[in-house]
Design a protein that fits this description.
The chain is of the alpha+beta class. The chain has helices at 26-75, 79-89, 93-97, 101-113, 137-148, and strands at residues 117-124, 127-135, 153-163, 177-185. The mean pLDDT is 82.
Length: 191
């Protein structure tokens, strides 16, 4: 066995390249500070500036709304006077519940006016009292039926139907009578 010398690696040259640590120099510190400022500005834009601009816009909207409210309140200063004029010339609740008098008169003219002579007519609220003459009992019944056929008539009631003939004369169906009819009106029912 021969003894040989073992070969070990050996460094025969020297490496003189040296990289200095620049993390402590003022330029590197300034770079870190600048990066931090940019991040803070980015966050400040979202967290501060945008919120501040929204607040400013809300304040402008509020000012416009308050100005509009003030102008409306100025328009309403004479509201009491306007309401008084309106209530003076508008229909009351009771008047709104009444049936149009022209419609009632047209109904009476159509039912009674063509065949009989109207002696008296009284309209009070939703009640009409009419007295007519110059018709027979059969014509009186037709007049009452014509009145009851109208949608604005709730019911009719013939109070009296007396003849205008002498008391001593015999009863005749064709003798003219004087009739007094009560007509109760109603609002027209929609069908």
């Amino acid at each position: 066995m021969s003894k040989r010398k073992a070969a070990y690696p050996a460094k025969r040259s020297m490496n003189l390249y040296y990289k200095p640590d620049r993390t402590t120099k003022p330029a590197t510190v300034m770079l870190y500070v600048l990066f931090t400022l940019v991040c803070l500005l980015g966050l400040g834009k979202f967290l501060v500036y945008d919120v501040w601009m929204e607040t400013q816009e809300a304040q402008r909207t509020l000012a416009a709304a308050e100005e509009q409210l003030e102008s409306v309140n100025l328009e309403l200063t004479d509201y009491g006077e306007v309401w008084e004029r309106y209530s003076r010339y508008s229909a009351t609740e009771e008047e709104r519940d009444l049936i149009d008098r022209m419609e009632v008169l047209a109904l009476l003219d159509q039912a009674v006016g063509a065949t009989a002579t109207m002696d008296t007519l009284s309209v009070s609220g939703s009640t009409v009292q009419i007295q007519f003459s110059g018709v027979t009992l059969a014509q009186t019944a037709r007049i009452v039926n014509a009145l009851e056929a109208s949608p604005i008539v709730a019911y009719t009631m013939v109070n009296t139907a007396s003849t205008t003939q002498d008391e001593g004369a015999p009863a005749d169906d064709s003798a003219p009578v004087r009739a007094s009819v009560l007509v109760q009106l109603q609002k027209e029912v929609a069908q």
